[in-house]
Amino acid sequence: MKFKDLDYKKVIVIIFLLSIFLAVFLSPFASSFPDGLEKVAERNGFIIKERDMNFFSMFKDYNFKFIKNDFFSIGFSGLIGTILVFGLTYFVLRLIIRK
Amino acid sequence: MHIPDGFVSLPVNLIDAGISLSFLTYSMKKISKYENSKQKIPLVSVFAAFIFAAQMLNFPVAGGTSGHLLGGFLASLIVGPWYSFLLMSIVLILQCFSFADGGVIALGSNIFNMALIGGVFTYYIYLTVKKLLKIKDFNVVSVAFFSWFSVVLSAFFCSLELVLSGTSKASVVFPAMLSIHALIGIGEAIITVSVVGVFYKFLPKSFVNLKNEI
Which of B46, B71, B183, B197 measures 20 to 30 Å from B80, CA to CA? Predict the structure, then answer.
């Protein structure tokens, strides 16, 4: 596998910017209907079994609690999340791959 | 399909977590032995970010329900199954701890259903069928079918966990989960085919897992 340096870097940057765009500017428009599992749980009465154990979440349900406006709040969560996922994956892979 | 806490019993969660953790160790070992893996780090990382972002985009399906991309099978096609497993696990771990998407105790089950079954296991079935039927790389019909199938298969295992936990009856939860995810899977197929199409058509061939790295 040989990558041409410039092409490779460009493509990475493009995918990164696209991801940021999706997470920041499109996610506020995402459907807020319950997902498949939630819907099945609601219809069949086991939604009441849900227990909230996510005590440490800063961004519950993709909302940042210090921003009141829903649009900005979701977009901000998306921005942080995308950067965090990129950073953590990069970090873990650097630890694993030493060659 | 992120399972919240309380739906799946502790024993089932623990079994799933055990399996997920073993495969996580295995995937790391496997990745450390790949050649040219250093060059692939940025691609895998940015693809993880892409999957996270795409998972935020819930689309409406029938009857006031929404679905979103899972992306495990898509990631397997682009970066290979074990990178896919690792990146999907990282996405699910961050979703759980930072965004309360998916339960903390249920994390192992969510990794099992979406990263292992939907990402890796489906990919190996795809490879086997592809070989048997001599299907070409990135054939649209097979990519569409198996991305749809990855969602349905994940939903199957999710239902199984619910039944084993005594949360719901098999006769209720299997038909309900499978039918709704058969619809959500269409969205998965459309997104997967589009993304794979763009990668395959417009990027250097080194950007897709053409050698079917296993």
Answer: B183
Domain span including residue A67: 1-30+55-99
In angstroms, what separates the C-alpha of B128 from chain A's closest C-alpha?
24
Inter-chain residue contact A19 with B50, CB threshold 8 Å: yes
Contact list, B44 vs chain A (CB under 8 Å): 89, 93
Q: How far apart are CA B31 and CA B82, in angstroms?
A: 7
Predicted ipTM > 0.95: no
Contact B100 A39 (CB under 8 A): no
- Residue A96 inside a domain? The answer is yes
Does residue A77 register a pLDDT over 70?
yes
* Three-state secondary structure readout of A4-15: CHHHHHHHHHHH
- Out of 1.10.1760.20, 2.40.30.20, 3.40.50.620, 3.40.109.10, select the CATH number for domain B10-207: 1.10.1760.20
**B58/A30 Cβ within 8 A:** yes
Burial zone of B146 (CB within 10 Å; 0-12 exposed, 13-18 middle, 19+ buried): buried
Residue A47 belongs to a domain = no
